[in-house]
Amino acid sequence: QVQLVESGGGLVQAGGSLRLSCAASGTRFRINVMGWYRQAPGKERELVAGFTSDGSTNYADSVKGRFTISRDNGKNTVYLQMNSQKPEDTAVYYCNCNLVIGGTYWGKGTLVTVSS
User: Fold this and answer.
1) Checking CA distances to 47, which of 37, 39, 62, 74 falls within 20 to 30 Å?
2) Are 43 and 62 in contact (CB under 8 A)?
3) Residue 80 in contact with residue 48, Cβ under 8 Å?
């Protein structure tokens, strides 16, 4: 069973920065897609940033230029550096991955609160 453990959430003032981490464990199969989603109160879950199966990255328009996704393949870990944060970035952030053999997995989420 794949486990995704997120860390790094918390409270930050507008304009500040946070770094989220997500470590995957419990599988010997390659992870070919991994990324971050978020869900704000009363809204649907949305993609924030992610690595596609060919290794490229994509970002939500709302975070381009402010957030950066990176990864350490040796550790099966993905990071999300969030700079110049805005109150509208407040949400629960979820890590997600897909295995090359199939199957989608989610972390339990980490809360990010940006105060104005």
Assistant:
1) 74
2) no
3) yes
CA–CA distance, 53 with 59 (Å, rounded to integer): 15
3-state secondary structure of 84: coil
pLDDT at residue 74 in the model: 86
Query: What would the pLDDT profile of 51-91 be if each residue is shown by its tens digit?
Result: 998 989 999 999 999 999 999 988 899 999 999 999 999 99
pLDDT at 19 over 90: yes
| CB of 97 closer than 8 Å to CB of 31 | yes
Q: Count the alpha carbons within 13 Å of 50 in the hemisphere toward its beta carbon.
A: 21
Q: Which residues are CB-neighbours of 15 under 8 A, at least 6 positions away?
A: 84, 85
Output the six-digit token pair for 102.
């199939």
